[in-house]
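Notes continue from the previous slide.

Worked example: a multi-chain complex. Inputs as given:
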Amino acid sequence: VPSTCDWRKAPGVISSVKYQENCLCCWAMAAAGNIEAQWAIKHKESVEVSVQELLDCGRCGDGCRGGYVWDAYITVLNNSGLASEKNYPFQGVVGKKCQAKKYKKVAWIQDFIMLSDNEQKIAWYLATEGPITVTINMKLLQQYKNGVIRATPTTCDPQHVNHVVLLVGFGKTKSVERRRAKAVSSQSHSRQSTQYWILKNSWGANWGEEGYFRLHRGSNACGITKYPITARVGKPDKKQRVSCP
Amino acid sequence: DSFRVQDPGPRPLELREVFTLFQIQYNRSYSNPAEHARRLDIFARNLAQAQRLQEEDLGTANFGVTPFSDLTEEEFGQLYGNQRADGKAPSVDRETGSDEWEGS
């Protein structure tokens, strides 16, 4: 596992930060981001897929009232792929009719898997295969502005996960970034760096760190290891390891 | 002559002023004075909560005024969470075995 990885640095892999508006569709936006990133890495072709298709064509038919990321992948498998965001754009409400058949598919998946709940294995998969979706407890995000959140089970229950986001990388802070070190000048302080995950949210680019946030890596912060799920793109027999920038 | 008024320097913003700045920044308006008062109260509680989080956090995170500062925790969960999964995500058995591509 490399010490740092940031798929945002790879051109065409991570699309722009989305805004879910008044629609509880984080699950669909994270799944779309996962498919886009995997497709760009495996096929070396940048695509932006339709979140609206996931909402309109899901088996439950009420995609703006929440959902599970695996429902998004089942919809992609049932529809043999997804249309482009340009052809089938996001409306912020569920349409009356699934319009999947009207548009050409721009990306498709082979299947989807749940990874191990081991953060080191998740980092390895992220670095060698690409971004994945995770479901976290979003409680601390209501007041979050920037920096690395280092939660405890008391401040952020890892069992109560309620928000799906895209995991796009990991890194570590320089020792000078630790707030305790700069705030408590009279105390002897740790100069250790903090390892973190980089996550893409769907609350617009004006929220957090330009639409992204960072969570401590190595402590199952906010339940990040509970549902690490990814679509698989490309043929399973073609082993094609990639390198995260 | 011995009594001098010292310049106290710039005074901290009052809660209401901070709330007004929040309303301007995030384009918030409320239907009536009672709703305004309720949102101001929620805003104050959230600022206090952000301050607590700031003090307790062991990382480098900064907490404070955000676009969600006039929402209760319940409203925030209902408006932005993954409601279907909220608190009742199914128990999924983890498959034992390989993460490799060959797995069925």
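Summary box: The CA atoms of residues 53 and 100 of chain A lie 6 Å apart. The mean pLDDT of chain A is 91.
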